[in-house]
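Ticket #4471: structure output looks truncated?

Reporter: J.K.
Steps to reproduce: submitted the chain below (87 residues) through the standard prediction queue, then opened the result file.
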Amino acid sequence: MDRRYTSRNEIGQGVLELKPQVGEWAVYPRHNMSEFVVLGGAIDCLAAYEETGLNPEEVEALKIDNDRLHRLIDELENGLRKENNNA
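Returned output as attached by the reporter:
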């Protein structure tokens, strides 16, 4: 991950650390507080993702590995059940 856009404040909330430069986007407050709540949740999610240090391709590879491991566990559990039923 080349650059982080978030940090955590003293109570653990994700904080957007943008210092907009030419060509970069910025977040500006809007009309009501509900937008801040939604934005706050999105920033917390981004902070959690950035804290992993993984890039999107690595996350996708982990999801594939996780699915494969769950299928193997299911097969092993089914095999053990069959053995116990036959004993």
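Triage note (M.O.): checked the attachment and the full token line is present. The chain has a mean pLDDT of 78.
Status: closed, working as intended.
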